[in-house]
Design a protein that fits this description.
Blueprint (H helix, E strand, L loop, with lengths): L3 E10 L2 E8 L4 E8 L5 H15 L9 E6 L3 E7 L6 H7 L6 H20 L2 E2 L8 E3 L5 E3 L6 E2 L17 H4 L6 H17 L9 H10 L11 H10 L10 H4 L3 H14 L8
Antiparallel strand pairs: 1-2, 2-3, 3-5, 4-5, 6-9, 7-8
InterPro entries: Kinase-like_dom_sf, NEK_Ser/Thr_kinase_NIMA, Prot_kinase_dom, Tyr_kinase_AS
Pfam families: Pkinase (PF00069)
GO molecular function, one term: protein serine/threonine kinase activity
Length: about 270
């Protein structure tokens, strides 16, 4: 397809190759390419589903869908380019902890995206720092909807996503839900504040045991007791005790940042691709 010109490869993974590219109007985009001959049919369907789902979403903190197309050999999705890369990369380069207000500003933007998804009855199923992108303006965007599901289509025992962010009920063979997304948000927030993944083990079996048995480490002492309490509520082993995304946005620690977002969004205008 001649509408986009590839600049360079960004990364290569199990589901395809990511390229930075420019549109015919000179706007930077990301192209996700899947070589059909190299993939199992299930993996191809994951990418098709991601394109279809992305095309139905419109939110300031979800990576913007641009286009997708398929040839006999290749399936391609064009998406908004986030110049700052992943939050995982940003965290790995930090030499000191985020200020509490800075961390909460990042977190509330992710929660706003998740609340939008849940309102549309979509479970993300893979919320983690790797799937949170940072734009050049500092705006945070949730991405990677390849394993996302409509709530009505989720089945018990269907485990997808980063195992280190699995909620306890998933470790027991339960099904994904809004509550498992909220647990993953708790893991993400802890990672953001401590600069280390919350749960880490050499094998998946050991990782699941760690999630079920190990206590949540305390935050660095520079963070408030209210913030630590918020994390513990998200990381409750009882799913019903975790706050829903819409409730979380009304939490005193987040609500002020949310008001600032509303003001910022009123002036946001997407680029023409």
């Amino acid at each position: 397809m001649d509408k986009y010109t590839k600049l360079h490869m960004v990364t290569q993974g199990g589901y395809g190759t990511i390229y930075k590219a420019t549109s015919s109007r000179g706007v930077q985009v990301v192209l996700k390419e899947v070589i059909l001959a190299n993939q199992e049919e299930e993996e191809v369907q994951v990418t098709r589903k991601e394109a279809q789902l992305l095309s139905s979403l419109s939110h300031p903190h979800i990576i913007r869908y641009v286009d997708h197309w398929e040839t006999p050999d290749l399936l391609t999705i064009a998406m908004e380019y986030a110049e700052g890369g992943s939050l995982e990369k940003v965290i790995s380069k930090r030499e000191s902890h985020f200020e509490e207000t800075e961390a909460l500003k990042i977190f509330v933007e992710v929660v706003a995206a998740v609340e939008y998804l849940h309102r549309k009855e979509i479970i993300h199923r893979d919320i983690c720092a790797r799937n949170v992108l940072v734009c050049s303006t500092g705006v945070i965007k949730l991405c990677d909807f390849g394993v996302s599901k409509r709530m009505r289509s989720v089945r018990t025992g269907s485990l997808k996503g980063d195992p280190s962010h699995f909620a306890p009920e998933l470790c027991y063979g339960g099904k994904c839900s809004e509550e498992t997304d909220m647990w993953a948000l708790g893991c993400l927030l802890h990672h953001l504040l401590s600069l280390r993944p919350l749960f880490k083990s050499p094998t998946i079996a050991a990782l699941l045991v760690t999630i079920l048995a190990d206590p949540v480490p305390p935050l660095p002492p520079s963070y408030s007791a209210a913030l630590e309490s918020l994390i513990f509520s998200l990381l409750s082993h009882e799913p019903w005790q975790r706050p829903r995304a819409r409730v979380l946005l009304s939490h005193p620690l987040l609500s002020l940042h949310l008001q600032s977002l509303h003001l910022a969004h009123s002036s946001l205008q997407p680029s023409s691709i």
